[in-house]
């Protein structure tokens, strides 16, 4: 009788193991919490990957918040987050400041992206050169008729200076020339898109994952912000999207990063409108 009970116990245990493997919800038996903060561009990638990772690992809790790339990097330096999302590379001064306090800002590249220049759909303009974009944002050009468009005031919409998107645009499009006084400064990609949608004369810029039919993307130097052009490096305003950690990720954070870089994770990157790093 005892032998029968033991055999039944083993059989039930084996069935339980098989069931766990099949439902995918005990992947590595992971437990713990991860806090992520930073870039609003990286935010949808972080949210989508966190949701799926928690579905696979019910005992894991991942908190995701925005705030801008500078905030994400700062939170790593302050040990208030395990992952700092950034749509730009860490600055030399940030790396040095972190190192002075024993923090190693480690760059984990999770996606590729392009920063599209957007206008309202009623705008007749379809292409802008980098020089024209610079002249618009520095205030040298103030009316669309100066560029062959309608007689309409140009409404300049830019990201705030804590934004990684702003940093890349500032370097690659504006060549480090300051945005003119009086420009509308917004805190997120969504806010930039909304501002352009609501103002016929507006111009702004946003990551690929935020583009929709409410705005029109113009070519830059006659080059479209497409996946092939961004991967090839021909589109002039492109970038890597990052998740910074304090040193190489370990433990639960490492498992989460490996998931993002897996085929499944990179599919989620593409679903959010961004470009997988394996392209």
What does this entry show, briefly?
The chain is an alpha/beta fold. Helix content is 38%, strand content 23%.
Describe this structure in words.
Helices cover 38% and strands 23% of the residues. It is α/β, with parallel strands linked by helices. The protein folds into two domains: 31-112 and 239-271, 3-Layer(aba) Sandwich (D-Maltodextrin-Binding Protein, domain 2), CATH 3.40.190.10; 114-238, Periplasmic binding protein-like II (D-Maltodextrin-Binding Protein, domain 2, 3-Layer(aba) Sandwich), CATH 3.40.190.10. Strands 1, 2, 3, 4, 5, 6, 7, 8, 9 and 10 form a ten-stranded mixed sheet that branches. α2 (43-56) links the parallel β1 (32-38) and β2. Mean pLDDT is 90; it is low at 1-27.
